Amino acid sequence: MTDEEILSRLRIILHDTFEIEPERVTPEAHLFEELDLDSIDAVDLAIQLQRMTGKRIKSEDFKNVRTVSDVVASVHMLLKD
User: Fold this and answer.
1) Which domain holds residue 24?
2) pLDDT of the chain along its 81 residues, tens only?
3) Spacing of C-alpha 11 from chain mean position
4) Per the structure, how many domains does the chain have?
5) pTM above 0.85, yes or no
6) At what angle do helices 3-18 and 68-80 cross, to 10 degrees?
7) If you ran DSSP here, which 8-state letter would residue 35 be given?
8) pLDDT number for residue 24
9) Rounded to a whole number, what is the distance in angstroms from the first to the last CA of the chain?
10) How far is 17 from 44, CA to CA, in rounded Å?
11) Phi and psi for 32 in degrees, rounded to 5?
């Protein structure tokens, strides 16, 4: 899966789950400051990513995720395993 494919799926997830407009979801966008997610939303996002990849996300791996680009990198790591 390419970065663009992951980003595209992430835009859909963020729109469907949190009603965030897809054009706001850029690699540089900060999840908490720019997209207004909170810690509970981050848990919901992790669950959605688990569904997308079929792999479990370790909470310690997701703790340092701050931007959309970080999420894309996390998905790549999940798909590698």
Assistant:
1) 3-80
2) 899 999 999 999 999 999 999 999 999 999 999 999 998 999 899 999 999 999 888 777 788 899 999 999 989 888 886
3) 9
4) 1
5) yes
6) 120
7) S
8) 97
9) 13
10) 8
11) -90, -40
